[in-house]
Amino acid sequence: MISSLALDSVWIGKERSSLFYYLKKVEDHSEEEADSYLIHEKNYTYFSKGRIPRLEFKENGEILSIYELRRFISNYTTFRLATLRHVKTWIGITGTNGKTTTLYFLEQLVRDNVRIGTIGTLGVRINGELVKQCFSPNTTLPLFELIRAAELCEREKCEVIALEASSIGYVEGRLLGIPFNCMIAHEVSQDHLDYHLDFETYLKIKQEIVQLANIAIVSQRAFSQGLRTKENIVVPTQADVIELNKQCAIEACKRMGLSYLNAELELPPGRYEKKTFGSFQVVIDYAHTPDALERLVKAFPKEKLHLVVGCGGDRDRGKRREMARIAFHHAQNCVFTMDNPRYEPCLQPLLDLQAAAPQALIIPDRRLAIWYVLETAKEGDTIIIAGKGNEKTMLLHHLSVPYSDHAVIEEWANQSQRMTL
Q1: Are 229 and 165 contained in the same domain?
Q2: Domain identity same for 285 and 152
Q3: Which residues make Cβ contacts (< 8 Å) with residue 397, sequence separation at least 6?
Q4: Which residues form the Mur ligase central domain (predicted)?
Q5: Which of 83, 96, 231, 354 is most buried by a 10 A CB count?
Q6: Where does 123-178 have alpha helices with state H?
Q7: How is residue 155 annotated by DSSP?
């Protein structure tokens, strides 16, 4: 009897009769092929396409195969989520930028009147409190982790679950069987083309995500891009994108009949987060796409702006040139630096940025880059540190090294204070 399921093989063997499932991209399969491959107890053998065995019994566990796994997973998820008695409303949030901020606003709007569980970049949270259980860092959790998170929300008597629905998560089957009542959709701009290969495919996937729900709260720009479903509530374009995120969250509350408190809302950590040091201010933001970066820097006069920015390794290389152009055009002092190189050579993203803006300064060490702009800023200047937001690590090859933009700024501030004493 199968007692548990897991997307990550690290969970195999932690419980008896656990199932490890694997889903490749949709385009890797034809209709005639099995979707996936392996259930086992303690045997770690992986059976790929074309090598699917019959049911076998072995000394160290039972191995069997399941065909049409996507249908199986979808039915299984629907069954598990249908057992949740308190959870009545599922809200998804998609789009290239604004998912985390909208989710954070939605949480603040309803948590005084309705218990809400949120799942996204900031982790699994219940009424604003981060849960201590360990979950993957994905924007959209692996499906069976998401089920585990939902059941945790159920135990805490949450009536609403809201989650970030990413395009990669959708392609990899992480949204299968989730009974969305409403989807909030923001504009789609260039990102993840290393994964989706072209913008048309990326946009099509976002359109399909919105159609997972019968009701959609859609920004005007997203609606013009074809993000719509059976019933659409279009939110007009706002000059302030943060206000747009707030209005989308409020419209979702209204349409879902959720009692909400329309008070002043806090921004999530690492999103347009401002700090003042003497005569100048520092803004920390997660902006890591051309659209997000351009919206951010346009809010400040060029002659007073210092910008520290980088591009992640092993990600969409096509956006680097555009981000370099925006950064150099809108900032008086532009510094390119490291941002999660992953398995790509550390200097490659910086060389790609420099090719588009050769006059910009390159300081590979992100800590030194931030210290440089902090030391050179003058009265009335603004420093923007973009790309990592509230992240607590730097991804370097197979390592996850502790690192925080906030910690670097605090280190500099403490050192400066000691020097003035």
Answers
A1: yes
A2: no
A3: 341, 342, 343
A4: 93-218
A5: 96
A6: 143-155, 167-171
A7: H
The whole-number pLDDT of residue 191 equals 85
Residues 56 and 90 placed together within one structural domain of the fold? no
Q: Are residues 189 and 135 in the same domain?
A: yes
Asked if residue 189 is part of any domain, the answer here is: yes
Q: Rounded to whole angstroms, how far apart are CA atoms 39 and 69?
A: 11
Buried b (16+ CB within 10 A) or exposed e, 333-356: bbbbbbbbbbebeeeebbebbbeb
3-class SS of residue 356 = helix
Q: Are residues 59 and 105 in the same domain?
A: no
Contact 373, 306 (CB under 8 A): yes
Q: Is the torsion defined by CA of 224, 228, 231, 236 positive or negative?
A: negative
Lookup: tokens for 168:
């990669």
pTM for the complete prediction? 0.80
- 56 and 98 assigned to the same domain: no
Q: Which token pair is 284?
A: 């920390």
Q: Are residues 305 and 347 in the same domain?
A: yes
pLDDT of residue 69: 58
Measured in residues, the chain has a length of 421
Residue type, 408: V
Q: How far apart are CA 97 and CA 156, in angstroms?
A: 30
Question: CATH code at 413?
Answer: 3.90.190.20
One domain for residues 50 and 80: no
Using 50 as the pLDDT threshold, list the residues of the chain that sit under it: 1-4, 6-18, 20-67, 421
Tell me if 248 sits within 8 A of 97, measured CB to CB.
no
